[in-house]
Amino acid sequence: MVKHLKSIIIIAMIALVTICGATSCKSSGKMTKKEYKAKVEQASKDLNAILNNETNWSLEEQLARVNEIKQVDFSKKNPEIVEMIERAEAKIAREMEERDRLAEQKRLEEEQRLRELAEQNQANKGIADMFYLIANAKDINTANNYIKEALKLFESPDAVVLIRLNNYGDYDRPTTAVNYLNYLKDQKKVTVNVDNIKYNAENKITELELIKK
């Protein structure tokens, strides 16, 4: 009986040692030399590609790959990999910062463009509204009062008014602000659109370009 019990214990111990031996590699999380060498080669290849701008990865993808490489401890056997990781992280950070700076600059420029366009449209509408008020005034005195108000928008009554006849660069004879406003009073209709306005430092119109409808 005792002898039989000893045999069972010996068999159990052998089985336990066998199981532990078979699972020790996985439980410790260690890599084989071959696996480690492959990790080193791939890490070196990818880091060089990032540092030399030889990859199609986005900055976020590059950073993700660097973080993945950092999961392996290269500090003891391959300190050059660690140094490459640090350089790659610094490079990606600089490029992200520059990308964000340019995006913000572009956003501000677009805001400025839209603001200037809105101001230009408002100015165009202002002078265009005056044209219609003058042309449709109920009498001469009312028209003359509108002309006085409109002239306040100009640098002087003699500010240049250009009338473009078409989109091919053909112009009518140049006139002045006061002459054109009086012309509208006489014609009693508006046959042009405001195309371009030039201003002086005081935001007064120095040149007005119109185009035939």
Question: Could you explain the architecture of this structure?
Answer:
With 213 residues, the chain is α+β, with helices and mostly antiparallel strands. The radius of gyration is 41 Å and the shape is rod-shaped. The chain starts with a helix and ends with a strand. The N terminus is likely disordered.
Topology:
Layout: H1 2-28, H2 33-51, H3 59-69, H4 79-135, H5 140-151, E1 160-164, E2 175-176, H6 177-187, E3 192-199, E4 205-212
Parallel strand pairs: 1-4
Antiparallel strand pairs: 1-2, 3-4
Short description:
The chain is an alpha+beta fold.
Distance between the termini: 118 Å
Q: How much helix is in the residues?
A: 55-70%
| Strand composition percent | 5-15%
Going by helix content, strand content and strand pairing, the class is alpha+beta
Search tags:
single chain; disordered N terminus; 6 helices; 213 residues; rod-shaped; alpha+beta; 4 strands; four-stranded mixed beta sheet
